[in-house]
Design goal:
4 helices, alpha+beta, 14% strand, 166 residues, Kinase-like_dom_sf, two-stranded antiparallel ribbon
Length: 166
């Protein structure tokens, strides 16, 4: 399950940094049963963030966006490969696995064109961020973030998110 591999990858990175602005629950076990995926993960006590925590959540998001895959990885998707989970796609899951950022960009732009969006509304990943792969969070809602008893931020990484290319 790409979602669990991605979360565990991120947890290993941010949790190993004592000065990190965020912690991420570690994944203990993940499995599929029938049409559903289940992730058994570390429980971290805390209070859900509110709109008052917007600045702290922004710092967490900035940290998570900074996570990049190995330079040898060029395909968007979760760690270990697989479809991309994002609300852009029908049922929040891409129907195909992309071999490159260029393939993903072409698909997104074709969808926008077929949906009859004006021609100036197209995606150019190279223009946005140089085409580099990074964590893509599709639901930056304060409830997806918590503070533990010490005030440390926790990202629950509800996994409709994936690392393009990891």
């Amino acid at each position: 399950m790409g979602e669990a591999r991605t979360q565990d990858f991120i947890a290993n990175i941010v949790n190993s940094d004592e000065d990190s602005v965020v912690r991420v629950p570690r994944v203990y076990y993940a499995f599929r049963y029938k049409d559903h995926g289940y992730i058994l993960m570390q429980h971290i006590e805390g209070q859900d963030c509110t709109e008052e925590d917007t600045d702290a959540v922004a710092l967490v998001v900035k940290r998570l966006w900074a996570i990049t895959p190995s330079p040898t990885v060029s395909a968007p998707g979760p760690v270990g490969g697989g479809p991309i989970f994002h609300r852009f796609f029908a049922n929040h899951c891409s129907a195909v696995r992309y071999n490159s950022v260029a393939e993903l960009q072409e698909h997104v732009n074709n969808v926008l064109a077929r949906a009859e969006y004006p021609s100036h509304i197209r995606i150019d990943f190279n223009k946005e961020d140089g085409g580099k792969l990074s964590l893509c969070l599709d639901d930056i809602h304060p409830g997806n973030f918590r503070r533990d008893k010490s005030g440390q931020m926790i990202s629950l990484l509800r996994m409709e998110k994936s690392l393009p290319g990891m």
